[in-house]
Every structure is written in C-alpha cells, then in structure tokens.
Amino acid sequence: MPIEEVCDSVSAEDDAKKGPDVPFLLEERVKEKVPWKEVLKKKVGKKCSCSSARVKALLIDSIPIIKWLPRYQFKDWIIGDAMSGLIVGILLVPQSIAYSLLAEQDPIYGLYTSFFASIIYTLLGTSRHISVGIFGVLCLLVGQVVDRELTLAGYPSDTNQTTLGNVDNSTGPICDRSCYAIMVAATLTFTAGVYQVGPFIKFRNFLSEFLKYLNVLIALLGLQVLMGLLQVGFVSVYLSDSLLSGFATGASLTILTSQIKYLLGLHLPRVQGWGSLIKTWISLFKNLGHTNLCDLITSVLCLLVLVPTKELNDRFKAKLKAPIPFELFVVIAATLASHFGQFEETYGSNVAGNIPTGFMPPQLPNWSLIPNIAVDAFSIAIVGFAITVSLSEMFAKKHGYMVDPNQEMYAIGFCNIIPSFFRCFTTSAALTKTLVKESTGCQTQISGLVTALALLLVLLVIAPAFYSLQKCVLAVIIVVNLRGALRKFGDIPQMWRVNRLDAIIWLITMATSALVNTELGLLVGVLVSAFCVLGRTQSAQVHQLGQAGDRELFEDLASYKGLQSQAEVAVFRYEAPIYYANQALFKKSLYRNVGLDPLKEKARRRKLDKQRNQKQEGEDQKQEMDVSTNVYLLQHNSLHKLVIDCSPVLFLDTAGVNALKEVCKDYKELGVNVLLARCNTSVIDSLRRGGYYDPKKGIKDIQFHTLSDAVSYAKSLKSQNGDCDTVV
Question: Which residue intervals make up region (Disordered) (predicted)?
Fold first, then answer.
C-alpha cells in the first residue's frame, strides 16, 4: 500500500485525538477470489497451448545445450574444457573397470556406462561442472539387487561364470551369468522405453504391449523423469546434508567390507539381507586360511603406492595444474606384472578377463524382472537424484550461476534411460571426479564430450589390454577412493558441537545403512529427520517477555538483564506453530509460565463450593471460603491482562484455533483478558475462518502490529470479570 494511503487511513492527529488505547491500523487489501475452475483452465491452457514460440521455448528448456552452445567462448574456454575432460577420462578408465566389480558386472559395462552418461548429461544438464558417471554408492545398490536376482534365477556364484540359470528372457536366448547380470542391471536402470515389438505383430497386439509399457513407465525408475515432468524437483530439499553424508558413509563401510574378499583373493558369495556387513566379516574370518598370497601381496603393494600418492595429490592440488593419474599408472604396471608373471595360471589370481572392443547391439530389458526390482529402483532413483542436485547446486553457488533441479531430474533420468538399451547401469554425479573437473579448468559441459572421446578410444582400441589385470587391484582403487567418506568419522565431535540433532541424524543414518540395510538407512534417515523437525515444535516453550526501557523491544526475561515487566499486563511468546500435535503442550506451557492453570483453579473452586455446603458452622464456613477464594488474588493481584506475542506462530490449524479459543474462554472466567498480538496474515485468516472472533462474546476483530500497542490497549481496558477483548 502506498505511504500516502496509510497516512490518510491513520494520521497522527487521529492518534492524538483517540488516545493510546486505539491501535495503529493498516488498511487490508481486498483479495480477489478467482474461481478454481478458471485457475485450472488457465493453467491447463498455458501448459497445453501450442505455438512456434511455445515449441521453441520448450525445446530450449528441455535441451539446455541449444541455449548455451551458440554463446560458447571458444578461445577462452576450449583449453580448460579439453584439459579437464581428458584428465577425467583418464581417471575414469580404471575407476569404471573397478566399480563394475562393485556392481557385479563385467568391466566393459562400466566403460559403457561412463561413456553414454558423459554425452547425455552434456546435452541435457544445467550444471557446468559436475561429472556424471559411475558412483560407488549406486554401484553398491545395483550390485546388491543383481546378486539377489542371480541367486533367485539359479546362478550359484561368481566362481562359475558359465553355469546357466532358468531365465525366461523374452529379449533373447538363455544367457550365462554375466549376460543375466547386465540384464538385471539394465532393467533396474531402465525407466522408460518401448516394449520389444516384432515387425510382424498385429496392431492390436502392438497396442496392448504399448499400454503395458505405459504402466511400467509410471511404476519404475522412470519415476525420475516423471517427477521432472511434474516439476517436483523440490523433494531434494528434504534430504539434508547430514542425512546424505551419513548415508554415504554407511554405504562406504559396506563397500569397504565387500572389497576385502578381493584384496585377500577369496571366492565368497555376496551376503544378502539385513546385517550383511557383520555376516560378511564373519565369513571373511572363517575363510582367512584360504587367502591367495599373490593377491594379498599385490593388494598391499598397490595400497602402499596409492594411499600416499593420493594424499600428495590432495595436499598439492593448489600447485598442480592437474592431478597425477597414479591410479592409471598402477593399473598399467599391475597389468604388465600379471601378464608377464602369469599370475592367473601360476598362482590362481582372479583377473578381469576378456574385455571386448566396440559396442554390443542394443537390447530391451527383461520385463519379467520388473515386479522384483520396483522398490529397489525407487530408492536408487531418489539417491541418484539427490546426490546430483546437491553437487550441482553446490558448484553453481560457488561459481555464480543457477541450475534447475527439475531439469537435473530430467537429465539424470535420461542418463539412465537411454544407456540402459546399451547394457549400462545406474549413474549419478560423483564428488571426486567433479572436484577434479573443476580444479583442472572446466568451464562448460564440453569437457564431458572430451571425456567421452577418451573413453571411446579405450572402448575401440585399448580395452583388451586389461585382460590380465587382477581384481584385487580394482578393489584397491575402490577402497582408496573411500577415504573422503571414511574421514567423516573424524568430524563427529565437530558435528556434535555445532548441532547435536544433525549429528544424531548422521549417526543413526550411518549406523542403519551400514549395520542393517543400505536402502533402509535412507528411509530411516528421512524419518528421523522428520521426527526431529516435529520434535522441535513439540519442545517449544512459552517465554515471559519484558520491555527494554521505552523502546519497542520485548525479549525473554530469563535471557536478558535490565528488562521491565508491565504492571497488570503479562506478555508471553510461543516460538512455534500451534497445531494438532502441540496444542496441548502450548496450553500446558502457557498455564505453567503464567502461574495459573484455569482448569485447576475452577476445579479448586468447585471443591470449595462442595465443602461449603457440607459445613455446618457458619463462621467457620465463611472464614474458610474467604481464604480459599482469595488464593488466586493473593498470587495474581496485579495480573488482569495477558498478551500473547504470535509473531513466531507461522500457522494455525483447526486444533490450534480451538486451543486459543479455550485459553481465552478459560481465562475469561477468571477475569483475565487475553490479547493476541503481531499475528501474520495467515494466522489472522485461520482465526477468522475458525470462528475465533465473536463480538457477542466480547472477542473483537482488532489487529495489533506491535506489542507496545497491545500493552497500551490492555492497560486502557477495564478490569472486569468477563471482559475478554482479544486483539491480533
């Protein structure tokens, strides 16, 4: 509202004329009520309108590269993009092969996954810096599902790679363990696609299969893209940093445990079910006598090389133009040593095996697996999206640009949809590679295309050279890259000092993810976070306020010195919304701080009336009644008005409005006026809709915007029983 209108509405002359008992009033704007049918019609028309401008805008929003590529500053940015893309590509070669092991896949599929994800995110992503590809936590989740489905299909363990299971696969003939493993991973990753339709199927059959496909699209991991269409990218805000950090740390412990068997050269099946971490360690201790000395020595040597060199990279990253790819050097050296030393033939070491060149023909998922993996796919979708959005927003804030969470959901969804046709598994952003990408001069996602070119060279030419690479070397690479997550344990004291609730969320999520079940850890973390937020509203207390001199400043008397309480007026503040879950606690805290519980006082008076009727002696009865009915007056002879500061009350529900009604009614019967002050517009609307204001009962619809006005108005009221003017 313009200042002139406010001044016309309430002038200084009016204030002087009417006195201090009249509050300063603001003229409310009249809100136009638009029928919901018109609102719906307008929104549907806007979304469904079709024009050349609409199509162009939709295309640009859906494929962001169309918008930023024409403005690409080639001379200034190409060197940084090329350098960062090449370095990330070099780092991805050993990591893609290693994390395939974690996902229960052959090494070639890890290279496929990193290749396709780099290209697709370049086209669809809005972040300039994040690196999308293989992420350890998601590989762990995929590996758990794959191992479970392999067991259900009749495949024994990874020690027998050629045994056939009873697999009903409509996309091809019965396949071996490796084939079925990638089929499960691709089905898990695939969210939307076309059901396999033969060229000679009749149209009605095609229509039937297409309708089945639509049901599958809604049901599974394609929920990522569906949520993007519905513009619900805001869900990422409900996954706090402490929750994600605890989940990642707990999953890292599980990853570390799963790799110990490769470090020792043991052939043990992956443990499924709750408590898998503890069961795995028990199995490891039972089989220590079967340790392969060649794999153990190789693991120790690789750890002795990689741990200090990675620390050197971290320590001198500010001075180095690019991190030194020690992982690649170790992989090359270990492959040469294994090949010429014939470790597989002589010592029985487990090696990567044949890695084919080129690309395999695309295939559709196995639809019969969908009922088994639907729940797992949902949790993987949420984790992948949350990690990607968190990293993209973090680096966007650091470099001063904006990212669109809904478009990120689109991008990461299609990074899973399209590659699943080409035998890939789930991807998301990865912190380690993103940090490398940023530190080596990345400017745009053109660096992702350079990374894809480096991986393409490996896929077409170099991949078979890693045949003799020992799996224990790949396990060492995975373990070394867990250092960042495991270091979080050293931050627990600091987290506890900063915020104990966040520390508790971190500990519970981490412990559940590691000791019980990885997916359950995420759910438990979300529930604990929700209960912590709810608990804060439950633990809110009413505080009595005092005024700082003549200033418009009221604060908690228990927290600050020099504050003055008001004669005949008590001012209190409740620092939480008032709703169904805490309305009883609000009344209890208010009555306790005021020092007078109206219900107890009325019960006491009824008891005294009953005792009076039972007494026979008139003088004794009169004396006792005088003493007992004056209990309240002796304790509260100066309290006639109660002002409640509602500024921290964000909202009221029906139970909250009823609670305020009861407070006003109960105190009214004791001759105490209840005044509400500094309510926001939402609270005022709730009070009006809930029937709080009732002039017949003396509850007037008057709004107070300052506590000083409320106190002045309260002092001007007559202290009469039943006079309960209530202001807002």
Answer: 602-623
Q: In DSSP terms, which residues pair with 512 in a beta bridge?
A: none
What are 606-632's pLDDT values in tens digits? 777 777 777 655 555 455 444 444 434
CA–CA dist 238, 528 (Å, integer) = 12
d(CA 676, CA 657) in angstroms, rounded, equals 12
User: What residues pair up with 546 in beta bridges, in sequence order?
Assistant: 555
- Cβ-contact 628, 658 below 8 angstroms: no
Please write the tens of the pLDDT for every residue from 395-418.
888 888 888 877 887 888 888 888
pTM: 0.73
Distances (CA, A) of 216 to 30, 194, 229, 373, 477: 48, 10, 16, 12, 37
Specify the DSSP class assigned to residue 516.
Answer: I
**Phi-psi group of 595: left, alpha or beta (phi > 0 → left; psi -120 to 50 → alpha; rest → beta):** left
Residues 6 or more apart in contact with residue 569 via CB below 8 angstroms: 640, 641, 642, 643, 711, 714, 715
The structure tokens listed for 367 are 């639809």
Give DSSP secondary structure letters for 70-114. GG--HHHHHHHHHHHHHHHHHHHHHHHHHHHHHTT--HHHHHHHH
Tokens 């990330």 correspond to 88
The conformation of residue 10, written as its DSSP 8-state character, comes to: S
